[in-house]
């Protein structure tokens, strides 16, 4: 056994603790995570209107501030909408703390090299989620708004049909799209991690490409609202992300082969020393 493996074994042995200690630590991590979420939710509730104004910007960008008007038809609808904004914002702002607590609870049970390998994926997860949210904010929602406004009619002796979005429905659409795209954009992270542990290979992903294309449209139909624009807006990036995943898994495989070759060369050269 190599000295590195012995060091890892000693570190794991040193981190072992009775079951009760693990449960106490788990409770402590959960309390910190829930407390972070609660504080973020309270803060977001007090700033719910400015946050909503930020979420409304894609609509204002296309329609113009003079043509932007949102309505609510129930007494507590806007209040409930603000509560949803608070929870939605808390999930965003508290995620780094929650993820850190999860990692700190799991890390003692991992070898040193496993912890080092896991950290990049922990960092990449929020980055790709944010990338998916930006696609919704700057591309998908403006397209949906432009399409919806283009269906209005009025004048010339015909009945006037005007778009008056409800605050709750607009927020629900925005949240569902952001969550759908944010989760879908985790594809490279997940496939690269699976490639690193040897479950999938780049050649396997290449041979399954045509099946994934069908699956991308099915997944887009499930995750997005029932309109063609949203579904294509998610399916096309998914196919691009799949190609990125193939390239990323290939890099991981090449790196593993290089490390394995270096290890063999070192092993062959050690007796001569």
Q: What does this protein structure show overall?
A:
With 273 residues, this protein is mainly α. The chain contains eleven helices and two strands. A hairpin with a 2-residue loop joins strand 1 (153-155) and strand 2. Helix 6 (112-149) crosses helix 7 (167-184). The chain is flat.
Q: Which percent band covers the strand fraction?
A: under 5%
What characteristic shape results from the CA principal axes?
flat
The ordered H/E elements are HHHHHHEEHHHHH
How many distinct helices?
11
Based on secondary structure, the structural category is mainly alpha
Poorly predicted spans: none
The order of strands across the largest sheet is 1-2
Between the first and last Cα atoms, what is the distance in angstroms?
Answer: 18 Å
Mean pLDDT: 84
Total E-strand runs: 2
Instruction: Write down the Rg.
Output: 25 Å
Helix content: over 70%
Largest sheet: 2 strands, antiparallel
Any descriptors?
273 residues; mainly alpha; two-stranded antiparallel sheet; 79% helix; single chain; flat; 11 helices
Describe the secondary-structure layout.
Layout: H1 3-15, H2 19-46, H3 48-63, H4 77-93, H5 95-106, H6 112-149, E1 153-155, E2 158-161, H7 167-184, H8 187-196, H9 202-207, H10 209-223, H11 228-269
């Amino acid at each position: 056994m190599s000295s590195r493996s012995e060091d890892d074994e000693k570190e794991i042995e040193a981190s072992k603790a009775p079951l009760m200690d693990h449960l106490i630590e788990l409770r402590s991590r959960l309390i910190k995570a829930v407390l972070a979420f609660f504080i973020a939710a309270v803060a977001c509730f007090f700033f719910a209107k400015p946050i909503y104004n930020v979420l409304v910007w894609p609509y204002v960008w296309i329609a113009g501030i003079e043509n932007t008007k949102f309505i609510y038809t129930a007494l507590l609808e806007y209040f409930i909408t603000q509560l949803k904004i608070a929870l939605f914002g808390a999930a965003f702002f508290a995620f780094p703390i929650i993820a850190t607590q999860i990692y700190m609870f799991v890390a003692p049970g991992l070898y040193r090299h496993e912890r080092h390998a896991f950290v990049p994926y922990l960092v990449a997860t929020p980055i790709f989620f944010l990338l998916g949210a930006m696609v919704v904010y700057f591309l998908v929602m403006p397209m949906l708004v432009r399409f919806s406004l283009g269906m209005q009619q009025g004048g010339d002796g015909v009945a006037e049909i005007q778009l008056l979005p409800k605050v709750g429905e607009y927020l629900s659409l925005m949240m569902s799209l952001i969550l759908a795209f944010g989760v879908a954009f985790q594809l490279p992270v997940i496939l690269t991690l699976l490639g690193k542990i040897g479950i999938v290979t780049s050649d396997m992903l290449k041979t399954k490409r045509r099946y994934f294309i069908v699956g991308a449209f099915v997944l887009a139909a499930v995750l997005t609202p029932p309109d063609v624009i949203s579904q294509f807006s998610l399916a096309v990036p998914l196919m691009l992300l799949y190609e990125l995943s193939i390239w990323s898994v290939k890099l991981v495989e090449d790196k593993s082969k290089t490390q394995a070759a270096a290890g063999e060369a070192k092993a062959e050269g050690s007796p001569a020393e």
